[in-house]
Amino acid sequence: MDGSIGGWVALVGGGPGRADLITVRGLRLLQIADVVVVDRLAPRELLTETRPGTEIIDAGKAPHGHNLTQDEINAVLVDRASRGFGVVRLKGGDPFVFGRGGEEALACAAAGLPCEIVPGVTSAVAVPALAGIPVTHRGVTQDVTIVSGHVDPSHPGSTIDWGALAAGPGTIVVLMGVAALAGVSRELLKRGRPADTPSAVIHAGGTPAETVVTGPLSDIARLAADAGIASPAVIVLGEVVALRERLLEGHRAARAAHPQR
Ligand SMILES: C[S@@+](CC[C@H](N)C(=O)[O-])C[C@H]1O[C@@H](n2cnc3c(N)ncnc32)[C@H](O)[C@@H]1O
Fold first, then answer.
1. CATH number of this structure's domain 3-121, picked from the four choices 3.40.1010.10, 3.40.50.720, 3.40.50.300, 2.60.40.1930
2. In the structure, what pLDDT confidence band is assigned to residue 64 with cuts at 50, 70 and 90?
């Protein structure tokens, strides 16, 4: 994409927290954008990559102190691109994993505007990895399910089959689940997941504030609460969490040896 085709939008996944985990394509588009509409959880350091004079619109901090609504974000993307500008919508993780990227792409399509999707490194996989937890491991688990914890399992609006998740041995990764952690673990235990299932809660993964709490499923909600774990956090439930002990030392040594921005 370049200015010669007129206005455009690119939904760019900024990765899970560290500025250098954006894709090369995402970074290139960021460097040529006229306008950047940035999310609260996108790596903010990346804004230093923009050209002087780039309009930065903070979707997480509107002038009246509230987040922009999704309709307001869609309207800004359409407005700036319709006026001939190149617009990067910079998001945390991947735009299509609980990122509402689909809604923004549909708004652009409805307005007849070109909209490119630039995938990102999703926190669902990368935050556990950065904490030394592989979400799958041969001989341990063959499946991983990524779910939203936004709606408590006890709520009538919950559409997740917690019974099926509890019955299987697969890894469960919960995003947006800090508030619902007690309800999620209670539901899984009630439906048959073993109480000693290794579990982890990772706050602010990939940033200097990263905090990891581990423990058995039966106790993980209390341990996380005692440690003061707040959002954003990724919850990982399953036998893969136990691998962390063995992987962590080498992982830490490598991270210390390589430059960290
Ligand atoms: C609205 S979802 C967006 C997910 C994003 N599209 C992705 O692919 O990573 C926000 C949730 O992602 C998770 N999250 C994103 N970045 C994180 C980070 N650096 N550390 C821990 N959790 C993170 C948290 O569960 C948070 O509540």
1. 3.40.1010.10
2. low
